[in-house]
């Protein structure tokens, strides 16, 4: 690594006089001697020169503008990192700095060799621990650190594959010390995270700074992902199109966005445990078309949660019987269960000897010096110089706290010393190494922050291939010692510079013989459920916005008819089911209802308020993120932005903006769903919600005890977006008979409830034909009864000057009966068509 220290040629001080990035934002002064961009003498390292020159030409204002573009892009794409505070999960936007971290090809070659060697070593240790255990028998590793470790899973004995590398996916956290050398600070072997975020970072910077990326001659990431897909495909020889799935714990996971992103990019099906079932020692995917055999599981669920039968019995995230399927060789799991033991920092103390034993060579990328406090000599050294070490637990189940000895006062050091002496075998001590720094854009200035790097490795054929790039994570501010997204850290893309431009290769533009080209992604019951409710909430919100627009129009000072405004307020009460709601509004309040409406409609605690409905749309869209187009995700994100805007806002303008957004979402959903089964569930939800909303509106009119205002029927047609259609079909003034025909009974009217029910009937019949799971007749009875009742509906609703009670009373009862049947149909679709017959439960 000496080349890194000597690789400098351009004077930084000579550039300060230029009106560029560094001079206008203030002179960049590293915190420590070791900085990624500057040598200790203050010179810009050679491989950074082009980037520095380019940034100076752009200037600080333009760089800051592009930082805002990056944030907008990531927000529109929904890129996030979830933070769990012990009670709930908070969704935080992914933070990407516009300045990448650069590595020369020469230095990266050394890193590649070191990561490949380390992956091979850990693979051999992994296989040995769950088979012969020679390293324990030969005294290379104390048995206690393995057998007493929570991550050593005894049921995984003899479950590792024999015909390919057991450890297929690996990542390592690297840091650069004051001597310029890179060291491994941590190994990630269970379900290494960050690969999807690294790809997101790269795609974002390529779009925001395309010319800089092109002219910098950066190594492409696509070759790694191509090899990765080929390797997963070859795990199942003989299968033309194996079913490869990404197993996620769900949207509460910290890195759920990455699970969706990778599944979508690679073309694999994203599933949760409830989507899978084990039968006859085979894992099956519960698709809406029936059970499909799963061939490969790319897991993102912690291993002890993966099988509640043999591992953690209280887990609802796992697949009962999974380990037995693995033993039978009927499914491949990447990485295999049991690999978590390799992440223990204890092993880092023994890796140099293990490298000599298995490989006959020294580690090319050494670990940070690590002492296990369970060893008496190591413990003594730690006690003598605790301020020089970082104290870590051996496993998260022991503690998640990492303590920097240098930050403690004497009393705190003594308290920590007693804690370690109480259970020394549960702690390790890593030598404190001051991390190198990089420039980070903070508003209109740059600051040096500590940085760590994560590299990624995947087994390809008989060797390991390293991603030519990775994920750089930086501390949130210059004073912070901990680098973590959990504590507000930011991220950078890693650019490995090539000597000349690389050929552009698209991941999936590869001969079919070498890559799985066509992917048949099935729809699970969970996906179908989210499409169904997405359709319902989108339609419900659209109809709610129509009512609000009418109310605000009638609330204008020049509006003459207050009776219709009162009717609309009662309709809004029944529509949102917020009782007593607006039914008992006073005369004073009716003159200006907008402030109260704004307060209630923007409060997510109010059931069926605008904010509540949009929150539900967002929740459904998060579960469908890997199914949705980029355009559709952008429209959904804009809904929340409009609602959450802090600046003073015009409620009427907000309603108009939301209405346009909802129309765009409805159109994008209709056009972008490429699976007929998913589309039928989305459309069924929308049609069902439309029918329920129309029935509620008409029922609100029927139970109104006051004389109906003039033009009520015309207004009802406007509320249901049917006025233009009415004018094209009738030459009369709107009355109840024509309204009933348009909105309830006419099979040729696209807006009538009868038409919606008939479309629902067609959808459910096709779903039953295309699936193998459903034999229920409940929905047929409900549909038959609904159509029969609507067919005979014929109420001679008299004029407001005549009898007001009897006809409307009977019509109101009829509407309630239809509403009950529609809601029962919704429940039937939910239970018989969507939910699995057996829900996961604790054993």
Give your account of this protein's structure.
By secondary structure, this protein is α+β, with helices and mostly antiparallel strands. It is 45% helix and 14% strand. The strands form six sheets. Strands 5, 6, 7, 19, 20, 21, 22 and 23 form an eight-stranded mixed beta sheet that branches. Strands 9-8-13-14 form a four-stranded parallel beta sheet, covered by helices on one side. Strands 15-18-16-17 form a four-stranded antiparallel beta sheet. Strand 3 (80-84) and strand 4 (89-93) form a beta hairpin. Helix 23 runs antiparallel to helix 29. The longest helix has 30 residues, at 525-554. The two termini are 54 Å apart. Residues 1-21, 507-520 and 797-806 have low confidence and may be disordered.
Question: What is this structure's SSE topology?
Answer:
Elements: H1 2-6, E1 8-11, H2 21-24, E2 43-45, H3 49-77, E3 80-84, E4 89-93, E5 101-103, H4 105-129, H5 134-137, H6 143-147, E6 169-176, E7 182-188, H7 195-208, H8 210-215, H9 222-234, E8 244-247, H10 256-266, E9 269-271, E10 276-279, E11 282-287, E12 290-293, E13 296-299, H11 322-327, E14 332-334, H12 345-348, H13 351-358, E15 370-372, H14 376-384, E16 389-393, E17 403-404, H15 410-422, E18 427-431, E19 437-442, E20 445-460, E21 463-466, E22 471-474, E23 490-496, H16 525-554, H17 562-576, H18 587-590, H19 594-601, H20 610-623, H21 630-644, H22 651-672, H23 676-702, H24 712-719, H25 723-729, H26 736-745, H27 753-770, H28 778-792, H29 806-834
Parallel strand pairs: 5-23, 8-9, 8-13, 13-14
Antiparallel strand pairs: 1-2, 3-4, 6-7, 6-20, 10-11, 11-12, 15-18, 16-17, 16-18, 19-20, 20-21, 20-22, 22-23
């Amino acid at each position: 690594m000496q080349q890194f220290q000597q690789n400098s040629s351009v004077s930084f001080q000579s550039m300060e006089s230029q009106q560029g990035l560094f001079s206008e934002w203030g002179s960049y002064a590293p915190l420590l001697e070791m900085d990624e961009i500057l040598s200790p003498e203050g010179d810009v390292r050679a491989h950074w020169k082009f980037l520095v020159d380019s940034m100076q030409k752009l200037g600080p204002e333009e760089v800051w503008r592009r930082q805002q573009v990056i944030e907008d892009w990531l927000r529109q794409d929904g890129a996030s990192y979830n933070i769990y505070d012990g009670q709930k999960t908070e969704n935080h936007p992914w933070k990407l700095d516009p300045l990448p971290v650069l590595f020369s090809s020469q230095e990266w070659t050394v890193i590649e060799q070191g990561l490949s060697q380390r992956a091979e070593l850990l693979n051999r240790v992994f296989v040995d621990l769950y088979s012969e255990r020679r390293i324990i028998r030969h005294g290379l590793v104390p048995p206690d650190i393995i057998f007493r470790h929570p991550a050593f899973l005894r049921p995984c004995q003899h479950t590792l594959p024999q015909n390919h590398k057991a450890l297929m996916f690996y990542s390592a956290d690297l840091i650069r010390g004051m001597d310029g050398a890179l060291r491994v600070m941590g190994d990630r072997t269970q379900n290494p995270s960050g690969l999807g975020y690294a790809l997101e970072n790269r795609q974002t910077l390529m779009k925001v700074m395309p010319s800089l990326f092109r002219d910098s001659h950066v190594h492409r990431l696509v070759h790694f992902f191509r090899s990765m897909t080929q390797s997963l495909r070859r795990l199942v020889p003989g299968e033309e199109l194996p079913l490869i799935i990404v197993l996620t714990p769900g949207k509460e996971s910290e890195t759920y966005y990455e699970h969706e992103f990778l599944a979508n990019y690679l073309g694999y099906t994203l599933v949760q445990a409830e989507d899978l079932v084990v039968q006859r020692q085979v894992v099956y995917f519960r698709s809406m078309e029936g059970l499909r055999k799963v061939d490969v599981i790319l897991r993102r669920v912690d291993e002890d949660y993966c099988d509640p039968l043999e591992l953690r019995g209280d887990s609802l995230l796992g697949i009962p019987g999974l380990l037995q399927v693995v033993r039978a060789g009927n499914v491949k799991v990447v990485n295999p269960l049991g690999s978590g033991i390799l992440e223990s920092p204890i092993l880092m103390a023994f890796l140099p000897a293990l490298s000599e034993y298995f490989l006959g060579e020294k580690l090319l990328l050494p670990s940070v010096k690590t002492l296990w406090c369970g060893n008496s000599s190591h413990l003594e050294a730690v006690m003598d110089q605790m301020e020089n070490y970082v104290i870590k637990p051996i496993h998260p189940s022991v503690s998640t706290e990492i303590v920097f000895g240098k930050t403690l006062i004497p009393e705190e050091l003594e308290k920590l010393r007693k804690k370690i002496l109480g259970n020394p075998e549960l702690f390790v001590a890593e030598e404190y190494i001051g991390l190198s720094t990089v420039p980070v854009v903070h508003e209109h200035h740059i600051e040096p922050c500590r940085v760590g790097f994560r590299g990624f490795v995947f087994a390809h054929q008989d060797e390991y291939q390293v991603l030519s790039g990775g994920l750089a994570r930086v501390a949130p501010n210059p004073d912070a010692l901990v680098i973590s997204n959990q504590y507000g850290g930011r991220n950078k893309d890693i650019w490995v510079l090539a000597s000349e431009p690389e050929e552009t290769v698209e991941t999936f533009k590869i001969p079919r013989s070498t890559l799985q080209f066509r992917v048949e992604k099935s729809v699970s019951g969970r996906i179908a459920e989210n499409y169904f409710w997405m359709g319902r909430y989108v339609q419900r919100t659209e109809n709610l916005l129509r009512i609000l627009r009418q109310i605000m129009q009638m609330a204008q000072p020049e509006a003459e008819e207050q009776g219709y405004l009162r009717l609309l307020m009662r309709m809004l009460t029944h529509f949102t089911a917020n009782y007593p709601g607006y039914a008992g509004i006073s005369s004073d309040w009716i003159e200006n209802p907008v402030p109260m409406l704004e307060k209630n409609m923007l409060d997510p605690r109010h059931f069926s308020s605008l904010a509540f409905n949009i929150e539900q749309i967002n929740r459904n869209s998060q579960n469908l993120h890997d199914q949705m187009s980029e355009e559709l995700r952008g429209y959904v994100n804009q809904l929340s932005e409009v609602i959450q805007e802090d600046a003073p806002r015009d409620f009427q303008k907000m309603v108009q903006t939301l209405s346009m957004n909802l129309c765009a979402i409805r159109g994008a959903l209709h056009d972008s769903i490429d699976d007929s089964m998913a589309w039928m569930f989305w459309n069924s939800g929308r049609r069902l919600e439309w029918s329920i909303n129309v029935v509620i509106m008409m029922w609100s009119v029927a139970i109104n005890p006051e004389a109906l205002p003039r033009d009520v029927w015309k207004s009802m047609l406007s509320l249901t977006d049917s006025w233009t259609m009415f004018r094209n079909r009738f030459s009369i003034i709107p009355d109840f008979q024509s309204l009933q025909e348009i909105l309830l009974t006419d099979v040729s009217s696209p807006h009538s409830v009868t038409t919606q029910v008939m479309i629902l009937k067609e959808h459910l019949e096709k779903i039953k034909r295309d699936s193998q799971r459903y034999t229920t007749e409940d929905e047929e009875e409900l549909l038959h009864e609904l159509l029969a009742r609507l067919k005979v509906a014929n109420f001679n609703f008299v004029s407001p000057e005549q009898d007001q009670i009897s006809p409307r009373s009977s019509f109101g009862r009829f509407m309630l009966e239809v509403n009950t049947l529609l809601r029962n149909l919704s429940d039937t679709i939910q239970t018989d068509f969507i939910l699995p017959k057996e829900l996961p439960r604790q054993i």
